Amino acid sequence: MSTKLMGEAVQRVEDDRLVRGGGQYVDDIDLGALHLAVVRSPHAHARIRSIDVDAVLDIEGVHAVWTYDDLDGAMAEPLPLLIPHPTLTHGRTQYALARDEVNYVGEAIAIVVADDRYVAEDAVGRVVVDFELLPAVVGVEAARAAENLVHDDVPGNIAARSVQQNGDAEAGIKAAPHSLSLDFDIERSACMPMEGRGVTARWDTANGRLQVWTSTQTSTGVRAAVAAKLGLDLLQVDVITPDVGGGFGVKINHPWPEELLVSLAAQRLGRPVKFTEDRREHFISSAHERAQLHHVDVGFDDEGRLLGLDVRFWHDHGAYTPYGLIVPINASTQLVGPYKTGPYRVTFDSLYTNTVIVTPYRGAGRPQGCFVMERTMDAIAAYLGKDRADVREVNLIQPDEFPYDHGLVFQDGRETIYDSGDFPTMLQKIKTLVSWDDFESYRAEMAAQGRRVGIGLAAYVEGTGAGPYEGAHVNIESSGKVKVATGLTSQGQGHQTAFAQIVADELGVPFEDVEITTGDTRRMAYAVGTFASRAAVMSGSAIHLAAKRAKEKVLRLASDALEADPEDLQIVDGVVSVKGSPGTSISLGTVAVLSNPLRYAFDEASKAATQFSVGDASKPPVAEDDEPGLEGKDFYSPVRSTFASGMHAVIVETDPDTAEITILKYAVVHDCGTVINPMIVEGQIHGGVAQGIGGALYEKMAYDESGQLLNASFMDFLMPYVTEVPDSIDIDHLETPSPLNPLGIKGAGEAGVIPGSAAIAAAIEDAEGLPITAMPISPSELFELRAQHAVATTTPEETR
Amino acid sequence: MAENTAGKTAEKIHDVRLEVNGVTHAVAVPARRLLSDALRQECGLTGTHVGCEHGVCGACTVLVDGRPVRSCLMFAVSAVGSEITTVEGLAEPDGSLNPVQQAFRECHGLQCGFCTPGFLTTVTAGIKENPCPTHDEAREMVAGNLCRCTGYQNIVKAVERAAEIARGDAPAAAPPEGDDGGLEAATGDAEVARDDDASTTGLGA
């Protein structure tokens, strides 16, 4: 295939398998495993007085029941704090099984291993735990008030207080001709992949080797954690990530208690053991995100140009901090968006509550930051009586200002320096796509029919492709087929397709001959994981570099065989030939045969590589600086993240009577640098937008004051069906390649979700003429807001 | 640590035969065993996925006598005497993808693939019942299934495309697995399409 595949909407190689029901998700792996089920805390905050497991032993088919007292060594220590940060002064993590206290409903207390899940759950129901109840801290306000503490030794419930500043924001605001004080609130939501967590493990007693299959976003991370906790050497543990039924962030946290306990049980019992999370467990024992309260002070001039921005926010991280401060750091540094903020200060407290832990959910703090910044832009426009797009325009970073340094430290510990972008063009594109300038006539037309509509706009910049590195191994077999491994995992992003496009282009081989393996530590032991929209940037670049290395060797060997200069060779359709002389050629497979001097022939092709057939008898068969095989291996490790960007615009209709909110139009302009596969990128945007709509209008975690999650099922947690997403999502692309990696790629995985709440809130505000400062918003909440606003507008000078 | 040695309270086991994708599976299950679990574990057909176990997400949808059913809401013992079709049984007898499978692949109607089997079974039954769905009817056809990856945009396209493929290709539209009664409409339309040599919409029938 001579045409380039980069940028082509190549059909996914994953799909044939998946539409036939041939996927291999973790629960599909049949090793005849025993089933593990977990006794979980029914209380948000309690001390454990005693645990009685006697009744369990009467149940046929139960093999083991363990509590904290059955753990020893590193397993009896708290779970790792994965991302330590200097400001995380009071980080706390839970135990694999609660030791003497539980801090959220759903925390693991004991496990049962039984013949099947039904029996295991019967047994779970018979474990009796005696609790001493403690007062629960639920919600940011209760955490901040600190009348009760989640952890006795964490004063004020504050795990971390972080301040970053670039210039004197306070002075900037004071000196500005205008200023506003604003408050914004975002509630909890969660990733909710259709497949929950799951893990299967097998202990090979004879060889002292553990194999773990887990539905994770980081196989190498799980491997390191399991080895450390079980006291095994890294080389005794394989972690294999099979097909993963969605992740969206929640599966990057690790090790989950069950990943360790299943491994331990497999080792102790000498039998394969599995755990498959059910939906209620996913709600109460996996992770949530999003909840933050924010206060903004902003100063600006007559044009709406920012002269000082001072943001303070309070982040609810739940009961423990295994994933450190990534979410609030993202929120605080990505809040600035495509704008020159002037002097900026951001302060946050990361607070404990007696609720499920918080780890990144697609967007990971950016949706909150975007909401705050974009609502602030709208507030400034409203105050000045200016067009909301115009206020944004005067603040945009200009194309000639890249690289643009915000003077902030990003979540990877590196500088927040934007690498490339074209925000003014993007603003024009989104205005065109949504017919921004024609909206008033549309509004009038609709008003004439008694219908109420509004339009909103939101922009974001997203740091993608955080380090430290990813690697790739490319192996060309004597069949000419190319086997590629990269260590990060896949959860539906079509990596097997997109990465094969990169390899086919670089090596000049048919796309069908390339096979990609991800997330298997047996094939690539060095890797980080799939998060922060980094797979295409990191593994895509690593694969490109590794393929380049393999190609160099192909050309070197082929030039010997064809007695031609490597410069004069080309590879097309898996055949190396001399340019302009296509008859002089050698297939890639034959080059692979030649690359590996053999003593033993096993077929016709390999006869050509035996020592009596090839090589200069006066030289070693493998040169000193060479190695056998036709392989390439390389790593990509960028100095800092790339920055993708985008703008969304939304038209909503609100029902004047029922306050029902309907999205009439959703438009996206998106810049993820070089696009590998536009079909896949658009699919990612569609999915992100739907999650953004869910987060804006439907999804929240309804905790009561005692810390019970009242909507822990798909019946009550309102994830969008097709009926809740707009009929079409209009997408326009802009490509400003990143100068930081060889292909110019920026990430695309999270982008679609980031500006959803901001844009939809803006549109509702525009339709209703009343400030929308808290999301999500339901029809009944909007109805209530209308009533409050009707009263409030009788007293002028209300703050927003 | 406590390990069980002597069993008590054993559950009553039922020996039943399940007809799945034209194959008889003799399984021994307790009465409470869900059809979804029996399909996955006893029959080894892991293409049927379990997303919520309370009938809301639709991932576990299978066809029971041709009609979409949430297999997590049915006991295995209740399925005796019925013809069950799972995602593994959707492909044509020659092994090629059925129109719905083709369309989901072609339209990028799946990402992680976990919810996909439920959509495929639902739509396979849906276009059999309504071979010419309007756009709204195509949306309605999948309105009971949750997907967290795709935002449904390409799923709706795939429904419309599947109907198109089915109408344009008579052999593919009328798999010979079931009895003819329910297939009349589909077969009729497919023939019209073939006569017109039309590969797309605009059927007059």
TrEMBL record, chain A:
<dbReference type="InterPro" id="IPR000674">
    <property type="entry name" value="Ald_Oxase/Xan_DH_a/b"/>
</dbReference>
<keyword id="KW-0560">Oxidoreductase</keyword>
<protein>
    <submittedName>
        <fullName>Aerobic carbon-monoxide dehydrogenase large subunit</fullName>
        <ecNumber>1.2.5.3</ecNumber>
    </submittedName>
</protein>
<keyword id="KW-0500">Molybdenum</keyword>
<dbReference type="InterPro" id="IPR046867">
    <property type="entry name" value="AldOxase/xan_DH_MoCoBD2"/>
</dbReference>
<dbReference type="InterPro" id="IPR016208">
    <property type="entry name" value="Ald_Oxase/xanthine_DH-like"/>
</dbReference>
<dbReference type="InterPro" id="IPR036856">
    <property type="entry name" value="Ald_Oxase/Xan_DH_a/b_sf"/>
</dbReference>
<dbReference type="Pfam" id="PF01315">
    <property type="entry name" value="Ald_Xan_dh_C"/>
</dbReference>
<dbReference type="InterPro" id="IPR008274">
    <property type="entry name" value="AldOxase/xan_DH_MoCoBD1"/>
</dbReference>
<dbReference type="InterPro" id="IPR037165">
    <property type="entry name" value="AldOxase/xan_DH_Mopterin-bd_sf"/>
</dbReference>
<dbReference type="Pfam" id="PF02738">
    <property type="entry name" value="MoCoBD_1"/>
</dbReference>
<dbReference type="GO" id="GO:0008805">
    <property type="term" value="F:carbon-monoxide oxygenase activity"/>
</dbReference>
<feature type="domain" description="Aldehyde oxidase/xanthine dehydrogenase a/b hammerhead">
    <location>
        <begin position="20"/>
        <end position="135"/>
    </location>
</feature>
<dbReference type="Pfam" id="PF20256">
    <property type="entry name" value="MoCoBD_2"/>
</dbReference>
TrEMBL record, chain B:
<dbReference type="Pfam" id="PF01799">
    <property type="entry name" value="Fer2_2"/>
</dbReference>
<keyword id="KW-0560">Oxidoreductase</keyword>
<feature type="domain" description="2Fe-2S ferredoxin-type">
    <location>
        <begin position="14"/>
        <end position="90"/>
    </location>
</feature>
<feature type="region of interest" description="Disordered">
    <location>
        <begin position="167"/>
        <end position="205"/>
    </location>
</feature>
<dbReference type="InterPro" id="IPR036010">
    <property type="entry name" value="2Fe-2S_ferredoxin-like_sf"/>
</dbReference>
<dbReference type="InterPro" id="IPR001041">
    <property type="entry name" value="2Fe-2S_ferredoxin-type"/>
</dbReference>
<keyword id="KW-0408">Iron</keyword>
<dbReference type="InterPro" id="IPR002888">
    <property type="entry name" value="2Fe-2S-bd"/>
</dbReference>
<keyword id="KW-0411">Iron-sulfur</keyword>
<keyword id="KW-0479">Metal-binding</keyword>
<keyword id="KW-0001">2Fe-2S</keyword>
<protein>
    <submittedName>
        <fullName>(2Fe-2S)-binding protein</fullName>
    </submittedName>
</protein>
<dbReference type="InterPro" id="IPR036884">
    <property type="entry name" value="2Fe-2S-bd_dom_sf"/>
</dbReference>
<dbReference type="InterPro" id="IPR006058">
    <property type="entry name" value="2Fe2S_fd_BS"/>
</dbReference>
<dbReference type="InterPro" id="IPR051452">
    <property type="entry name" value="Diverse_Oxidoreductases"/>
</dbReference>
<dbReference type="Pfam" id="PF00111">
    <property type="entry name" value="Fer2"/>
</dbReference>
<dbReference type="InterPro" id="IPR012675">
    <property type="entry name" value="Beta-grasp_dom_sf"/>
</dbReference>
